[in-house]
Write a structure and sequence with these properties.
2 domains; disordered N terminus; 12 helices; 288 residues; alpha/beta; elongated; TIM Barrel
Length: 288
């Protein structure tokens, strides 16, 4: 593992900026544990986001609202232990940054010091620019997030596509520019029409990472469990399922259950045996 870490080149924020300039797409994925972050690292993704979607995908919450810092930080540490190359971004949960600049800096610092993250993500546009600036000024890189912002979705009509009209598009562009001016190193665009996402991407010097925002963003992010077919509650239109692990796991568990009940498992290949001479010293085996 030490050699592996030494050989791999770490992805940095300037690397992402260079990728935008050169037109190379940025690959980001969520991860919520050590094994999946190891795999993402080995594949060579550019960035891993420890998303507050962990609350829905892993903990079973109906929304991301209940997720706490104390729930996310152990997840961050596990992801950090599993990955060496991707840029690691911690997703600041609801009310961990909105209350005050001091709270925002303190909690962002926890993601860095306690969670082993290298940057944080915050939701919101112009209204969060001052918060973003305060975190950046404290020395912590910030990834912005506009469009559909799950933590405040009810304020914007729920989970609906953003940027359907020119007026909405101009608002989103203004929000993106405000975050760039506040020092954000990139912006996630969630469920924004691809025409508006393309305008934002062209207007900014920092990279855009799309999720359901079309083909013109500088990169893409998907929830790993959606990619793997492991989240059965619903599948967003913008997600692509590359394998149906849920069905595969079901079949494996059904086979396991059948073998246990029939006595096929464990077989001789799955047990440990004593020396026959030692077995004789135990005396006869009782039935029942």
């Amino acid at each position: 593992m030490t050699e592996h870490r030494a050989e791999r080149k770490k992805t940095t924020i300037p690397d992402l900026q260079k990728m935008k300039v050169e037109g190379r797409k940025i690959v980001m994925v969520t991860s919520y544990d050590f094994p999946s972050s190891q795999i993402a690292d080995q594949v060579g993704v550019d960035s891993i986001l420890v998303g507050d979607s962990y609350g829905m995908v892993v903990l079973g919450y109906e929304t991301t609202i209940p997720v706490t810092m104390d729930e996310l930080l152990p997840v961050c540490r596990a992801v950090n232990r599993g990955s060496s190359r991707p840029l690691l971004v911690g997703d600041m949960p609801f009310l961990s940054f909105q209350v005050s600049q001091e709270d925002a800096i303190r909690n962002a610092g926890r993601f860095i010091k306690e969670g082993g993250m290298e940057a944080v993500k915050i939701e919101g546009g112009k209204e969060m620019a001052l918060i973003a600036r305060s975190i950046v000024d404290s020395g912590i890189p910030v990834l912005g997030h506009i469009g559909v912002t799950p933590q405040t979705a009810t304020l914007h009509g729920g989970y609906r596509v953003q940027g359907r009209t020119a007026k909405e598009g101009e608002r989103l562009i203004a929000n993106a520019r405000a975050l760039e001016e506040a020092g954000a190193f990139g912006i996630v665009l969630e469920m924004v029409t691809e025409e508006v996402a393309g305008r934002i991407t062209g207007a900014l010097e920092i990279p855009t990472i799309g999720i359901g925002s079309g083909r013109y963003c500088d990169g893409q992010v998907l929830v790993l469990n959606d990619v793997l077919g492991l989240y059965s509650r619903f599948t967003p239109k913008f997600a692509k399922r590359y394998v149906d692990l849920s069905q595969m796991i079901q079949r494996a568990l059904q086979e396991y259950s059948g073998e246990v009940r029939s006595g096929q498992f464990p077989s001789m290949n799955n047990v440990f045996s004593m020396d026959p001479a030692e077995v004789s010293k135990l005396g006869p085996r009782r039935k029942g």
